[in-house]
Amino acid sequence: ILNVEQSPQSLHVQEGDSTNFTCSFPSSNFYALHWYRWETAKSPEALFVMTLNGDEKKKGRISATLNTKEGYSYLYIKGSQPEDSATYLCAPGLGWGKLQFGAGTQVVVTP
Amino acid sequence: EPEVTQTPSHQVTQMGQEVILRCVPISNHLYFYWYRQILGQKVEFLVSFYNNEISEKSEIFDDQFSVERPDGSNFTLKIRSTKLEDSAMYFCASSEVGGLKETQYFGPGTRLLVL
Prior knowledge:
The structure holds two protein chains of two kinds.
Chain A: E1 5-7, E2 10-14, E3 19-24, E4 33-38, E5 45-50, E6 56-59, E7 62-67, E8 72-77, E9 86-94, E10 98-99, E11 105-110
Parallel strand pairs in A: 2-11
Antiparallel strand pairs in A: 1-3, 3-8, 4-5, 4-9, 6-7, 7-8, 9-10, 9-11
Chain B: E1 5-7, E2 10-13, E3 19-24, E4 31-37, E5 43-50, E6 53-57, E7 65-68, E8 75-79, E9 88-95, E10 105-106, E11 110-114
Parallel strand pairs in B: 2-11
Antiparallel strand pairs in B: 1-3, 3-8, 4-5, 4-9, 5-6, 7-8, 9-10, 9-11
């Protein structure tokens, strides 16, 4: 079982501000990192799958970077909007499709 | 857009009773998964399933748990004799192909409460 840490646990952002948060994981035996966005009462939504050191992925105003050598990934939200309010989960992929989730970062965007 | 569906959305049961949680994965997907989240804890992997066999299971997935694909569309998780500590949100997921680089698509979950 990997130790997957996400920080901060929660953050409040003013509408229009940009923000970022971290997912840390053991760098040895790294294969892939998944990011999900999870709104209350909805299905977790897949954002990115990242595999290569230095990888950068983007979806609208959300982007993510990956550093496999030091074992971390940043997720950025540019110009936060109220609809970005959600819990963002990261999960290294292990074994045959097994995802090991972090505890998540809860983002609250206030108008 | 295709999505994973789960029924029921909520289930309340008495300790010791059997429950079956149902999932309809995305139609062309071949790999299926169950995860759970106990309130206040991380989402945990339970089991992966392919070609009518369990591919991998966690320590949580003991003899009280079983999975089945009874027909071409449903994927079920059965808990034979529920315990209080089985209370959790149970998520089904599916992917088109297997492997740890493949996107898994999640359903909305079934909230199970064991009394």
